[in-house]
Design brief:
The N terminus is likely disordered. Strand 18 and strand 19 form a beta hairpin. The protein contains 20 helices and 42 strands. It is of the alpha/beta class and about 850 residues long. Helix 7 packs parallel to helix 15 and helix 8 runs parallel beside helix 9. The protein starts with about 45 loop residues before the first strand and ends with a strand. The strands form ten sheets. Strands 6, 7, 10, 13, 15, 16, 28, 29, 32 and 33 form a ten-stranded mixed sheet that branches. It has a seven-stranded mixed sheet with strand order 19-18-26-20-21-22-23. It has four domains: about 120 residues, no CATH class; about 375 residues, Peptidase S8/S53 domain (Rossmann fold); about 160 residues, 3-Layer(bba) Sandwich (Glucose Oxidase, domain 1), CATH 3.50.30; about 140 residues, Immunoglobulin-like (Sandwich), CATH 2.60.40.2310.
């Protein structure tokens, strides 16, 4: 999900749903792809994904080709073969079989007519993407060898300080070879808008040489703006996928038929996950410190499937994920998602993308996905499945304070990333409306300062111009970039921005400005400045200015302040409860899962980037969103994978979610931002629906003590508990075995009930990953309307074959309630390990 997406819910449309250009940029996402109008050649067509009945490469069990059936011998042989897929005769033979099988079905259906294939999938999904009419799609869905036909839908894009804020330099990096070694040998796959290969965050010059990695099987596409040599070892591979986008507005001159990033979003996320250490961040000539990715030595494999202006289409995204897993990435980072549960299946968990990601997990690849930017409203999470680690966005402790000193020695506090006025002297103040000359352009508000032609340059020159940050800035009619141009053209000494309401002020997010500037986001501070100006500015009876007596000087806003506060859940970050279908029925799965910094994050940028106009022409940008939080988690996952190479995706996810912070250093609960009538968000106690397990604690995650383990067959059993055996078999090519059980049986580090009736029993099994035995005591913080008990409540867990312990939790409703309520289970170890399991219940009935 894009850093700059609009903060909006699916069910509530209020003033908080406005487009905030350059900060929470628009997420104009539709649940289905664009339809392409009929032409003289025939009716309109759309891209459809067609899934066939044979299993894809990652789930192949050997039956079809007679390779020792489903025996353990074959499974191990196939696992090893999959790692060497580019040379494996087994993989090649089965891939050829799938292609032949696909073509036979399509030939049977279409006859000898040409069938326009958009993509062919064999690795994570056995299927194709076709350009079909609605009638053709409906008929093809009835073919006995076809298990699903799903219409394409769109997806959109959902650091200087954060490494220090997360404690990397003195913590994890010191365990991983320092900042120049952290993440060594790990490959993070970035499915996004591409990458700028010329950026210093990705250069191999001056770095320890990047040798070849035998496990990587990808390649480097060459195209416009992406010449040979762009993949330099740091960037280990780069591909682009635009076959579906071609049907939805792809323009080679705008979007580049290559891995080149023309948007900026992909370059930013890649640098946050694995950008080089110590890269100077210079914007508008000011140095904002040095940037570093979370895993600065990790490699980047880039898969461009999203494009500037048009976003992306799910067939391209699935093709990118399919290729990434086939290439051998360790972690898959997806800062993207739809705007609502995708149609085409009875369950959010059975849609084609989520099943493809399930197969990625089967191939031992952890998938990290942005939770979405639809907050602060409920049921807005756009990452659904328990096998995907969904990331919420937090606000860290960095503030951008500034002051203005008035001629009467009064000091008003404001905000802004801008230089001070020159020298120690004071400058006259002038209100924009008082500097207007002539009638000007009637479409422009004089107070917004968007055109220098509106003002008398002789009056403004050398003065501090007072302008208004109105809703025209919020909705995109006015921009900070044009404000700067106006100030420069008029040769003003600087600019002070007041607000016309606390609501508009609450929408302001600091961006670096090239001129002395300060913003007052509250009506109170704005009125203080205006009252001073009016008091000392003398006018005649007609309103003509006689003398400008108000003076001021703007302080240095380039000095950043750190409060040492813990994260708050960002206002725009999507909230639970999770949903299980297109009708928004609640699921027994917690989302989001964990929170990481995602507000005003510095990262690499491409000068041709369009995602945020505020940084056009720059090499770095500071943007917000769950998109920015996601690569923080992907980078940590790469370091965890480096330390624990045999851990499963579930183990990696468990380590990060169970060790997350839920309190600040004073033992106060974390807070979540919610709407308020003034300039600042209302802060309320954060719940698991806001932040999942809590705020990412990288150092604790590297030594979790206990983990909750789950694998592919556990996830299939989960699907069987809520879907028909036929649906599950069609989606996963794995039959439901025995009694399906309940969704809450899935061994994940959370307990969630959409509808708790009376008493329920929930088993959970923990695995000791510490090198020695440890005694654990379970404590429970209960909710007012349900109670949890644990059996056993105290246990000692060993190592080796005795490193597992099953606990049976009993959850009992004590009061009927429709309100969401929450509890927390804490495992406290005798050696200092502490893990936490959030519990959430929506509907409670006594019986």
């Amino acid at each position: 999900m894009r850093a700059s997406e609009v903060a909006r819910g699916w069910r509530m449309q209020t003033v908080w749903t406005v487009l905030v250009v350059a900060l929470w940029l628009p997420s104009l996402i539709t649940s289905e792809a664009k339809s392409y109008e009929a032409t003289e050649a025939g009716p309109k067509k759309d891209v459809y994904m067609v899934v066939f009945d044979q299993m894809p490469i990652v789930t192949y069990n050997g039956k079809i080709l007679g390779l020792r059936g489903t025996s353990k011998y074959f499974s191990e042989r196939w696992r090893k073969a999959h790692k060497r897929a580019h040379i494996s005769d087994l993989v090649k033979k089965y891939n050829a079989y799938l292609v032949k099988h696909q073509d036979q079905i399509l030939t049977e259906f279409f006859g000898y007519e040409d069938c326009e294939k958009v993509y062919r999938y064999t690795h994570l999904v056995n299927g194709v993407a076709l350009f079909l009419t609605a009638d053709e799609a409906e008929r093809l869905a009835k073919h006995p060898r076809v298990v699903r036909v799903q219409k394409s839908y769109k997806v959109f894009k959902s650091t200087v300080h954060t490494p220090e804020y997360l404690g990397l330099p003195k913590g994890v990096w010191s365990q991983c070879g320092g900042p120049t070694g952290a993440g060594e040998g790990m490959i993070i796959g970035i499915v996004d808008t591409g990458i700028d290969p010329t950026h210093p965050s990705f250069t191999a010059r001056g770095q320890k040489p990047y040798g070849p990695l035998r496990k990587f099987r990808g390649r480097c596409d060459v195209g416009p703006g992406f010449p040979r040599g762009s993949c330099n070892g740091k960037i280990i591979g780069a591909r682009f996928f635009n076959a579906a986008a071609k049907k939805g507005g792809f323009n080679a001159s705008l979007h580049f038929a290559s891995p080149l990033d023309g948007d900026g979003h992909g370059t930013h996320t890649a640098s946050t996950a694995a950008g080089n250490h110590g890269v100077p961040v210079i914007v508008n000539g000011a140095n904002y410190g040095s940037a570093s990715g979370v895993a600065p030595r990790a490699r980047l494999a880039v898969y461009k499937a999203l494009f500037r202006f048009i976003g992306g289409f799910i067939p391209d995204v699935i093709a990118a994920c399919d290729q990434a897993v086939a290439d051998g990435v360790d972690i898959l980072s997806l800062s993207l998602g739809p705007n609502s549960p995708p149609g085409g299946s009875s369950s959010t968990f059975l849609n084609v993308l989520d099943i493809a990601l399930l197969n990625a997990v089967k191939a031992n690849v952890l998938v990290v996905q942005a939770a979405g930017n639809g907050g602060p409203y409920a049921k807005t999470v756009t990452s659904f499945s328990p096998w995907v680690l969904s990331v919420a966005a937090g606000v860290d402790d960095r503030t951008f304070r500034n002051t203005i000193t008035l001629g009467n020695r009064q000091i008003i506090k404001g905000t802004g990333l801008a230089p001070a006025t020159r020298g120690a002297g004071l400058y006259p103040l002038i209100l924009a409306q008082d500097a207007v000359q002539g009638s000007g352009d009637p479409s422009l508000s004089p107070s917004d300062c968007q055109s220098p032609k509106l003002y008398n340059k002789l009056l403004v020159r050398g003065k501090i111009l007072i302008c208004t940050y109105s809703f025209d800035y919020v909705y995109g009619g006015s921009t900070m970039q044009q404000l700067v141009k106006t100030v420069q053209s008029l040769e003003a000494a600087g600019v002070a921005l007041v607000v016309d309401s606390d609501v508009s002020g609450g929408k302001y997010e600091p961006i670096p400005l090239a001129v002395p500037a300060i913003v007052f986001p509250t009506s109170a501070d704005s009125n203080t400045l205006l009252a001073y100006y009016n008091r000392y500015t003398k006018k005649d009876r007609s309103g003509k200015i006689l003398t400008f007596g108000a003076t001021a000087k703007i302080g240095n806003g380039l000095t950043v302040t750190y409060t040492r506060s813990v994260q708050q859940v960002a206002l725009f970050s999507s909230r639970g409860p999770n949903v299980k279908d297109f009708n928004f029925n609640e699921a027994d799965i917690l989302k989001p899962n964990v929170m990481a910094p995602g507000y005003l994050i510095w990262g690499a940028w491409t000068p041709i980037g369009t995602d945020n106009p505020a940084f056009t022409g720059q090499r770095f940008a500071m943007i917000s969103g769950t998109s920015m939080a996601t690569p923080h988690v992907a980078g940590l996952a790469a370091m965890l994978k480096w330390k624990y190479p045999k851990w499963s995706p579930a183990a990696l996810a468990s380590a990060m979610t169970t060790t997350a912070d839920v309190e600040d250093r004073f033992k106060r609960p974390l807070l979540a931002q919610n709407p308020s009538p003034d300039a600042y968000p209302l802060l309320e106690k954060a719940t698991p629906f806001d932040m999942g397990g809590g705020a990412l604690n990288i150092n604790a995650a590297m030594n979790p003590g206990l983990i909750f383990e789950a694998g592919y067959l556990n996830y299939v059993r989960f699907l069987c508990s809520m879907s028909t055996p036929r649906e599950v078999l069609g989606a996963t090519k794995t039959a439901c075995a025995g009694v399906a059980g309940k969704p809450t049986d899935l061994n994940i580090p959370s307990i969630t009930f959409a509808n708790l009736v009376g008493t329920a029993h929930v088993p959970r099994t923990v695995t000791n990953v510490a090198p020695i035995a440890e005694k654990y005591t379970i404590s429970i913080t209960n909710a007012p309307d349900f109670v949890i008990t644990a059996n056993p409540a105290v246990f000692t867990i060993g190592v080796g074959v005795r490193n597992k312990q099953t606990i049976l939790f009993t959850v009992r409703a004590t009061k009927a309630s429709q309100a969401s309520s929450f509890a927390r289970i804490t495992f406290t170890g005798s050696l200092g390990h502490v893990i936490r399991v959030p519990v959430s219940v929506v509907n409670k009935r006594l019986r």
